[in-house]
Q: What sequence folds into this?
């Protein structure tokens, strides 16, 4: 743990009794109480995550949009000030360098939010395509990021800001004063499926803003939440996790991300991806729900009824909301239709499962 990076709130997490683990090169809180308790807190009330390990790049200048259009699969020209977009950076051989968020701050200024494990890789990748002198700044080590998630998040946070939180639409953001700190980005781009906001602050203000959120949320029984519950929350929604469900070898079309892959523009490897779309993919990222009791884990093999190996689990867990095993995995296309019976190899047993539509969990 000594060689790991630490977020600005590392000591706070230790004082709160968090179990700390290595994650993406950082020492991060995996849980404070139990994964199930924390999961249910977010589904039913409000919880706060420290996700300051995420990376942030500023991209500025007259050619900033051109650079973003060149490296990402989605169409960033559709963005307006205060609008965010989910996208991915494609590589030259059909895979994904990373998935990311693109925030348009102004016509010539964008914020890219990337995965912690890919900060250096993404920076180097984008830099090689920056042939037009776009100003790039890696502010990852200066920024903290909190995700306040759950159905009570709006009420818990509104007293801290003049930003009209109930009016904020999904995938929009505002810059304003929050908890007495100016120029804070408040964004509605949650990763849990239970609503809420992300708060971007500088490291120097991180602890005071965290404390203000905990105080304002006390009446709503706010709790700190670890990465364990974050994983089960995102999995119940079918949200992809880079390194599990996406990587350098999986194409966005195979991963079900055709909706963020726009062929109205040229981007890295767009010609080959357009061809793949035309010809059809051979495998698809699919969701399955266990019928037999058991827990699917990453790497477990998936079989058809006639014992043919048809895929592999990329993400799997026991769903606290549904009380059964759920997972994602790449299946041969002919087995990816909802309703198809498949079998997950768990040790010496093959557990019956059914391919289902996403999301697994639907809020009331």
A:
């Amino acid at each position: 743990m000594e060689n790991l990076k630490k977020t600005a709130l590392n000591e706070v997490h230790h004082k709160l009794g968090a179990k700390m683990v290595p994650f993406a090169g950082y020492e991060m809180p995996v849980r404070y109480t139990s994964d199930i308790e924390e999961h249910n807190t977010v589904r039913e009330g409000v919880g706060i995550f420290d996700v300051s390990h995420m990376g942030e790049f500023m991209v500025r200048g007259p050619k900033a949009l051109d650079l973003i259009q060149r490296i990402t699969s989605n169409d960033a020209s559709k963005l307006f000030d205060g609008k965010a977009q989910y996208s991915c950076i494609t590589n030259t051989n059909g895979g994904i360098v990373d998935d990311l968020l693109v925030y348009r701050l102004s016509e010539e200024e964008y914020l890219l939010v990337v995965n912690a494990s890919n900060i250096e890789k993404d920076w180097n990748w984008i830099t090689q395509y920056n042939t037009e002198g776009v100003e790039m700044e890696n502010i990852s080590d200066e920024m903290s990021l909190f995700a306040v998630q759950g159905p009570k998040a709006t009420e818990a946070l509104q007293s801290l800001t003049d930003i009209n939180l109930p009016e904020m639409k999904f995938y929009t953001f505002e810059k304003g004063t929050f908890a007495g700190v100016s120029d804070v980005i408040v964004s509605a781009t949650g990763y849990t499926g239970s609503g809420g906001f992300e708060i971007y602050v500088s490291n120097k203000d991180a602890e005071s803003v965290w404390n203000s959120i905990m105080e304002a949320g006390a009446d709503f029984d706010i709790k700190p939440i670890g990465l364990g519950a974050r994983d089960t929350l995102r999995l119940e929604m079918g949200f992809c996790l880079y390194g599990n469900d996406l990587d350098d070898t999986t194409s966005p079309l195979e991963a079900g991300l055709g909706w963020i892959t726009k062929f109205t523009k040229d981007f890295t490897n767009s010609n080959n991806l357009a061809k793949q779309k035309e010809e059809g993919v051979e495998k698809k990222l699919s969701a399955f729900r266990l019928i037999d009791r058991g827990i699917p884990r990453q790497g477990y093999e998936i079989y058809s009824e006639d014992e043919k190996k048809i895929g592999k689990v990329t993400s799997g867990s026991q769903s606290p909301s549904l009380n059964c095993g759920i997972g994602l995995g790449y299946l041969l296309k002919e087995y990816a239709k909802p309703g198809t019976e498949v079998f997950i190899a768990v040790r010496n047993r093959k557990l019956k499962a059914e391919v289902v539509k996403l999301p697994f969990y639907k809020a009331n």
Q: What stands out?
A: The chain has eight helices and 20 strands. The mean pLDDT is 97. The longest strand covers residues 96-106.
